Amino acid sequence: MRLSRYFLPVLKETPADAQIVSHRLMLRAGMIKQASAGIYSWLPLGYRVLRRIERIVHEEQQRAGHIPMLMPTLQSADLWRESGRYDAYGPEMLRFKDRQDREMLFGPTNEELITDIVRSNIGSYKQLPLTLYQIQWKFRDEMRPRFGVMRGREFLMKDGYNFDLTREDALHAYNRHLVTYLRTYERMGLQAIPMRADSGPIGGDDTHEFLVLAETGESEVFYDSAVTDISLGQRDIDYDDKAQCAAVMEEFTTLYARTDETHDETLFAEVPEDRRRSARGIEVGQIFYFGTKYSDALGATVQGPDGKSVPIHMGSHGIGVSRLLGAIIEASHDDRGIIWPEGVTPFHVGIVNLRQGDQSTDSACDGIYRQLESEGLTALYDDRDERAGAKFATMDLIGLPWRITVGPRGLSNGKVELTSRRTGTSEEMSPEAAIARLRDIYAAHP
Ligand SMILES: Nc1ncnc2c1ncn2[C@@H]1O[C@H](COP(=O)(O)OP(=O)(O)O)[C@@H](O)[C@H]1O
Ligand SMILES: [Mg+2]
């Protein structure tokens, strides 16, 4: 993409109404624009990051055998009456009537719809286990939408639902989701710690939230600092291997880590004092096992091996896809702007031409740009007729992790500069070497 032809409405001024750094940076970098309270348009740069996050979520879900689908945003009130949640949900649910006077709502979550689909189409235990998921917009009429995409009213969520014959199988699905979530967040350059949480209106016994530690987080958390030393890394996971998934679950959830809702002072006191931490965190996901709560209410049963009809065991699992942009920026920025982790960056590399209009720098930039594209690396080429300082400031603000700088002085020696946004270190090398380096870096971040 050539910046002169792109739509990147960066703001010079810091928006006064944005209270936290991720919100300020998303506005300044021209990623989002508020449409009304808690509702945003995704401008091209923000949209690219959103799509990359979605892609990682899809890949990690499908790696575990979970099946993508799409349900509507608008739902009929009938199903929610059947489950008993129509009245229970309260004012966060946006309700309205269509022209036939039918009661409708904008889905805040989808347990009812998915359970209806499954009850109409699944009759035998032989069709289980099954995990279906979608990435779809949700609406919750939050009392206090704030912090930009972090607490919106309309927001993008991955919601997945597992259907199993037995409690044991459903708990495997729970463990399997925990592993997929750990891998998903790690690919985004984030550490998200699973913490025992409270199940709220969804109901059920087992639930963990995934929290990214950040001072601006809305949740209060308590944990043993040793949990921050564990990571999943590159290990091979067989998602059908119940023992292996259970072992990962145990490894990540045995040390003390709880949100304030489930915090227990007595248990916390058993953590060695120098490892006791209380902090704030951003909830980027949550997994639930709730047994037969919805299948009982909605009559979702299967015939078991003995021919008897039994309710299906279920769980639901959510990732805050749009919130993740805010969480990643909270975790990765400096006073000049965003620093995207390689896994989610909107473009792999920025190209800065220090002397636009000069024939040799222009043609060198064009060549690098084309070579990158032919290797599947996306570049944002700043080909505007601007001062070098302004170009650097824009690149730093929008946070591409790598920058190639092309100027007449370096070119006279056949060199360009490759700069890391994270460390600020620059290295001189040939354009070919810079491209090869980027190819290697991104091979680890497909
Ligand atoms: N108002 C919101 N704005 C942005 N993301 C949200 C919002 N509410 C929930 N999410 C994200 O969706 C994920 C799944 O939602 P869920 O756990 O059902 O929400 P909650 O914890 O608010 O009840 C949450 O972990 C969070 O990351
Ligand atoms: Mg939650």
Automatic annotation (TrEMBL):
Highest taxon of the lineage = Bacteria
- Compartment(s) of residence: Cytoplasm
Q: Quickly give the catalysed reaction.
A: tRNA(Pro) + L-proline + ATP = L-prolyl-tRNA(Pro) + AMP + diphosphate
Name the top EC class: ligase
The residues forming a coiled coil are none
Extract the Pfam families matched here: HGTP_anticodon (PF03129), tRNA-synt_2b (PF00587)
Family per UniProt? Belongs to the class-II aminoacyl-tRNA synthetase family. ProS type 2 subfamily.
Q: What is its EC number?
A: 6.1.1.15
Cited function = Catalyzes the attachment of proline to tRNA(Pro) in a two-step reaction: proline is first activated by ATP to form Pro-AMP and then transferred to the acceptor end of tRNA(Pro).
**Known PROSITE patterns for this protein?**
AA_TRNA_LIGASE_II
- State the UniProt keywords alphabetically: Aminoacyl-tRNA synthetase, ATP-binding, Cytoplasm, Ligase, Nucleotide-binding, Protein biosynthesis
Domain Aminoacyl-transfer RNA synthetases class-II family profile: from-to ranges: 33-341
InterPro entries xrefs: aa-tRNA-synt_IIb, aa-tRNA-synth_II, aa-tRNA-synth_II/BPL/LPL, Anticodon-bd, Anticodon-bd_dom_sf, Pro-tRNA-ligase_IIa, Pro-tRNA-synth_IIa_bac-type, Pro-tRNA_synthetase
Query: Can you state the subunit structure given in the record?
Result: Homodimer.
Name recorded for this polypeptide = Proline--tRNA ligase
**Might you name a Gene Ontology BP term for this protein?**
prolyl-tRNA aminoacylation
Query: Which is one GO molecular function term here?
Result: ATP binding
GO CC, alphabetical: cytosol
